[in-house]
Amino acid sequence: MMGSSNKEAVDASLQIHKQIKVVFVMGGPGSGKGTQCSKIVQEFGYTHLSAGDLLRDEVKSGSENGAMIHDLMNEGKLVASDVIVRLIVKAIQETDNDKFLLDGFPRNEDNLKAFENLTKIEPDFVLYLDCPEEEMIKRVLSRNQGREDDNIETIRKRFRVFEESTLPLVDYYASKGKLRRVDAARSVEEVFESVRAIFSSTEVRPRPDRHCNCFCKYSSSFAHYEVSTSIDFLPFQLTSFLKRVHV
Ligand SMILES: Nc1ncnc2c1ncn2[C@@H]1O[C@H](COP(=O)(O)OP(=O)(O)O)[C@@H](O)[C@H]1O
Ligand SMILES: Nc1ccn([C@@H]2O[C@H](COP(=O)(O)OP(=O)(O)O)[C@@H](O)[C@H]2O)c(=O)n1
């Protein structure tokens, strides 16, 4: 077992010495996290870190943890939090960007605590791709990426883990007002319309009291918010004003 001073030295080497912005991207298996992340990368310049891909790369690298990670993934179980958190932090340290999408992370409360303890980072917001289970199963079974865990038996187990461990985190972020929920059962482009509106609103902060153009930005974004049912992050007065004007 690692001595405490040795562990502290490792933890210190994993500290992140730059100001970064993090968005957690959550959703069940096949909800479209990877698909939407690559579109967000193209349009908004984030770096996409997929927890599953980092783990699969670790397995391929033949590291000492590789066999254990491989077995857990094939059973649809979660890997120990310190393993995935260290991979994420290392990837952040090695990347020359200040905006990150963490796809498939956190998966449970323990993941979140381990990440917070090590990095002291809070996500700017949490994007949640909300999709019915039968649609997700259909997508995963036709994904064709040669993933050993994309078989019906393991998929069912992954769904149970999602319901039991990840959904409580989704509720937690909703209660903190940080959740941006999107209906992910639509086409890729329709889902991205909603996603784009959410990210646009965090990049540009128009001031409606200044002049008409600013209001127009809000006004056109509002159509997207309606589709995404994610209007809870608009300032309250503006939301009620838009409701009066548009409805
Ligand atoms: N909105 C969508 N409609 C139909 N198929 C989709 C949609 N989004 C993603 N897919 C497809 O579903 C599969 C799972 O998507 P993926 O992005 O890999 O999900 P996740 O990363 O959440 O597991 C992929 O084959 C992808 O091309
Ligand atoms: N934070 C995480 C993320 C993924 N994983 C593991 O990686 C597997 C695949 O995750 P993924 O995000 O690539 O795939 P989806 O289940 O979202 O399709 C999970 O079923 C877990 O075994 C984990 O243990 N901890």
From TrEMBL:
Subcellular location per the Swiss-Prot or TrEMBL entry: Cytoplasm; Nucleus
Cofactor: Mg(2+)
InterPro entries (alphabetical): Adenylat/UMP-CMP_kin (IPR000850), Adenylat_kinase_CS (IPR033690), P-loop_NTPase (IPR027417), UMP_CMP_kinase (IPR006266)
Keywords attached to this entry: ATP-binding, Cytoplasm, Kinase, Nucleotide-binding, Nucleus, Pyrimidine biosynthesis, Transferase
Binding site for ATP: G30, S31, G32, K33, G34, T35, R143, R186
Main location: cytoplasm
Catalytic activity, EC: 2.7.4.14
Cofactor comment: Binds 1 Mg(2+) ion per monomer.
Family membership noted in the UniProt record: Belongs to the adenylate kinase family. UMP-CMP kinase subfamily.
UniProt cross-references to HAMAP family, sorted A to Z: Adenylate_kinase_Adk, Adenylate_kinase_UMP_CMP_kin
Protein purpose: Catalyzes the phosphorylation of pyrimidine nucleoside monophosphates at the expense of ATP. Plays an important role in de novo pyrimidine nucleotide biosynthesis. Has preference for UMP and CMP as phosphate acceptors.
Domains as described in the record: Consists of three domains, a large central CORE domain and two small peripheral domains, NMPbind and LID, which undergo movements during catalysis. The LID domain closes over the site of phosphoryl transfer upon ATP binding. Assembling and dissambling the active center during each catalytic cycle provides an effective means to prevent ATP hydrolysis.
Protein name: UMP-CMP kinase
